[in-house]
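Raw record, unedited: DUF962 domain-containing protein
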Amino acid sequence: MSTSDVNTKKYKSLTEFFPFYLTEHSNAVNRALHFIGSSLAIGFIFAFISSGNWIALVLALFSGYLFAWIGHFFIEKNRPATFKYPFLSFISDWMMYGRMLVGKIPK
């Protein structure tokens, strides 16, 4: 499947979408950038919880998307699926992150 499939295929479930999501993250550098962005987002969320500083929450969103979009536009050279499937992409990102943490997907 290619990036153009994001625009043509209708994914109805996470089970159906996740394999496609992984194909859009086949480059190890792109996956590493996603991992870094997600890790920073978690750190900023904890900073927000401990300090109540709303800027940390903004930085959580910014860091997560910044690293992911750099990976897509400059490394993988594809369009993030989040533009068409925001919920499925968000959940899939955390599924990929969890699998990377336990070594089921190389960082």
